[in-house]
Amino acid sequence: MNPKTILGRYLTKQIVFNFLAVLLMVLGVVLLFEVIELLRRTSGRDDASFGFVMQMAFTKLPRTVDMVFPFVMMIAAMITFWKLSKSNEFVIIRAAGVSIWGFLLPVLAAVFAIGVINITVINPISARMYELYETLDFRLKTRNPEAVLFNDIGLWLREAGDENTVVVLKSASARQEKDSLFMREVTILELDRNSQPLKRIEAFAATLDKDHFDLKDVRVFEPGQPTQTFANLPYKTTMTLERIKESFVEPDSISFWELPGIIHFYEMSGFSALKHRMRYLSLVVSPFLLCAMVLVAAVFALRPNNRRGGIMFLIVGGISTGFVVYFLSQVIYAFGLNGDIPALFAVWTPTLIATMVSVSILLHLEDG
């Protein structure tokens, strides 16, 4: 069935409306529990106002909802299919000669579009909000209203200097003030591709300034050369404040559009980008996972004969199957993060299994 037909638009409207309704209910419940938990954490704290608690709850909300997004879609699909079956609209559509695949096509198209909008538009917003939440949570833990999310026990960075050298930077402490990064007791090592040292630079302090580090009170050590001292020494770098910040936050705090560049940067610098690659691939697969959850819902909720009863069994069966798919995806995802299985296999397997099993059952039902 063409999604642009009157019936196609009607089915699309039904799934979108039910999805938004379920999403709003889930948002309300999640926000309520987040506020209660944060109020418990901040009880007796004079430095944490109710406005601060609400800000933390709202900034964490998109990340929490993202974890249950497939369930929201499955429940919305089950409600949609159950209503169509209860009102006998599904029977009428089938009697008009529309196959179950023609019936599902507009719904799947709408769900896939929602998934694409989620990763291309909503995800960058939720990633920025989760990054803000991590900063607020860090301020709550440190009791410092101006604190930013940096490692207070030291900073390690690595980047590719050129085709033949690798640069490793270590500082005892780092802090951000507005758009500047300040570091103390900085050591820079220049290594060749065989990890043999070429140069060592030590500085009392350093500031990141656009395309270079501004080093203070510097000593430079090179094999076979006398020690050189400088009051100030600029040192070129490809590091930016955003890149350094991203090394301290979870991949969930990085938007879909920024992940490919960060993955390339880490791999060129010799870091493992497996967590970021897994996150990126899971976002790419997410629209297909939503469609798989719709197919699972169709197995349990599309019933041409409502006189057979067993509604509770169907609801429990559908939700239980959704949890099984989610648990399976998390287990396989963990294997992928550990490097035990390829990343593509880890993110695609649950979606493919759920899709193939659901399609097989629907084919059996279609053939009577």
What do these coordinates show?
There is one protein chain. By secondary structure, the protein is of the alpha+beta class. It folds into two domains: 6-144 and 274-366, no CATH class; 155-248, Lipopolysaccharide (LPS) transport protein A like domain (lipopolysaccharide transport protein A fold). Helices cover 60% and strands 17% of the residues. The protein has helices at 6-41, 50-86, 89-95, 100-142, 241-246, 259-269, 274-301, 311-337, 343-366, and strands spanning 155-160, 165-177, 180-192, 197-209, 212-221, 228-236. A six-stranded antiparallel sheet has the order 1-2-3-4-5-6. A hairpin with a 2-residue loop joins strand 4 and strand 5. The radius of gyration is 27 Å and the shape is elongated.
Low-confidence stretches: none
> How widely separated are the two ends?
21 Å
Say what oligomer this is. Answer: single chain
Radius of gyration: 27 Å
Binned, the helix content reads 55-70%
Question: Which keywords apply here?
Answer:
2 domains; 6 strands; 60% helix; 368 residues; six-stranded antiparallel beta sheet; elongated
Topology (elements, then pairings):
Blueprint: H1 6-41, H2 50-86, H3 89-95, H4 100-142, E1 155-160, E2 165-177, E3 180-192, E4 197-209, E5 212-221, E6 228-236, H5 241-246, H6 259-269, H7 274-301, H8 311-337, H9 343-366
Antiparallel strand pairs: 1-2, 2-3, 3-4, 4-5, 5-6
Helix pairs in contact: 1-2, 1-4, 2-4, 2-7, 2-8, 4-7, 6-7, 7-8, 7-9, 8-9
